[in-house]
Design a protein that fits this description.
Order of helices and strands: EHEEEEHEHEHEHHEEHEHEEH
Oligomer: single chain
CATH architecture of the largest domain: 2-Layer Sandwich
Number of helices: 9
Bound molecules: NADP nicotinamide-adenine-dinucleotide phosphate
Helix content: 25-40%
Largest sheet: 7 strands, mixed
Strand content: 25-35%
Strand order of the largest sheet: 3-4-2-1-5-6-7
Length: 333
């Protein structure tokens, strides 16, 4: 595979650092790696393949000759800089929410809709929200077989989903530090906040709207109804989700189990009698989406309930973004 010139914008952040580590772990064919961050981090060094790589500031020049640019520096940076530099790059993978719902920008989880890569004629591909990714990994095989009609999902989202400052707030509070910078609207230690991202006029949050819209775009089905409640919990890493799914057609738990167990990237961990079900501590650091607590939903005619856990920094962000690049390179060969 041809070696690529790569730019990572937001390389010092929690997603950027994870993404760089994943490039290394997956032996991604890197020729030149340019790490970019905000002003305060220029001149810092980050490890890559046994050497230290310097951190540069953001300028148009750093994208000259880039095959691939990963943007993980937040929506403001993506919104301003991707339109300015996309023509200098062969492919841009954006991890912010800014371009996700733009019609000609594919929104991709490779195991689910990898075929969308290249199908829209855009050289920007969006990485979905870190709660959407594991949800669609589970919904896709079930939708194909039983036709999903309605999904009710409550998320239990780790503080790492809000970046390094989210982890810093939880750790400070756990040490007993009551005052300091607040990433969340309330203390997060000993708390659950039904408030992720900002509230919109309909009483839902922007995060909840992302889940609704992104599920439909990725599964190519605007008829799927989604009712989300997104909650921030005092867990360092990994998002968990309690999900009820209603189908158009009769469903058997045996078939659900088989379909999920044979889906790439999904691991069924479901033996509650022995205390086996997905847990954040087990999923952290892994690329798979873990699913368990499979059971019928007695409140509807054709429905099931289940529990999903996935590493938001890896499959919800870095791993998925690198997989998008790998798929794109395969197509490009
Ligand atoms: N955390 C997750 O689970 C997750 C999952 C999926 C997607 N995402 C998305 O990934 C992006 C990064 O999130 P994060 O959690 O990694 O945040 P983070 O830990 O706060 O990191 C932010 C990064 O952006 C850099 N940055 C900030 N302003 C910049 C500027 N003007 N120019 C260049 N670089 C700048 C920061 O550099 P400094 O070192 O200079 O501050 C840092 O490297 C966001 O768009 C987020 O929505 C996050």
């Amino acid at each position: 595979m041809k070696k690529q010139n790569i730019v990572v914008v937001g390389a010092t952040g929690i997603v950027g650092r994870t993404l760089v580590r994943i490039l290394e772990e997956r032996r991604f064919p890197v020729d030149r790696l340019i790490l970019v961050a905000g002003r305060r981090s220029v001149g810092k060094e980050l490890p890559f393949r046994g050497e230290n790589a310097g951190v540069a500031g953001l300028s148009e020049d750093v994208f000259d000759g880039a095959d691939l640019a990963f943007f993980c520096a937040g929506g403001d940076v993506s919104g301003e800089w991707i339109p300015r530099v996309r023509e200098r790059c062969r492919l841009v993978v954006d991890l912010s929410s800014v371009f996700r719902m733009v019609p000609d920008v594919p929104l991709v989880v490779p195991e689910v809709n990898g075929g969308d890569i290249g199908a829209f004629g855009s050289n920007v591909i969006a990485n979905p929200n870190c709660s959407t990714v594991p949800l669609v990994m589970v919904l896709k095989p079930l939708h194909e077989t039983f036709t999903v009609r309605r999904v009710t999902v409550s998320t239990y989202q780790a503080v790492s989903g809000a970046g390094q400052e989210g982890i810093d707030q939880l750790e400070r509070e756990l040490r007993g530090g009551e005052t300091g910078p607040m990433k969340f609207p309330h203390p997060i230690a000993d708390n659950c906040l039904p408030h992720v991202d900002v509230f919109l006029e309909d009483g839902y949050t922007k995060e909840e709207h992302k889940v609704i819209n992104e599920v439909r775009k990725i599964l190519h089905d605007d008829s799927i109804r989604v009712a989300p409640t997104c909650v921030r919990v005092p867990v360092r890493n990994c998002h968990s989700e309690s999900v009820n799914i209603e189908f158009e057609n009769p469903v058997s738990l045996g078939e659900v189990r088989e379909l999920l167990a044979s889906s790439p990237g999904v691991v069924v961990r479901d033996d509650p009698g022995r205390g086996l079900y997905p847990l954040a501590r087990i999923a952290s650091g892994k690329d798979e989406v873990f699913v368990g607590r499979l059971r019928s939903d007695p409140s509807v005619e054709h429905g099931i309930a289940l529990w999903i856990v996935s590493d938001n920094l890896r499959k919800g962000a870095g791993t998925n973004a690198v997989q998008i690049a790998e798929h794109w390179m395969e197509r490009d060969r």
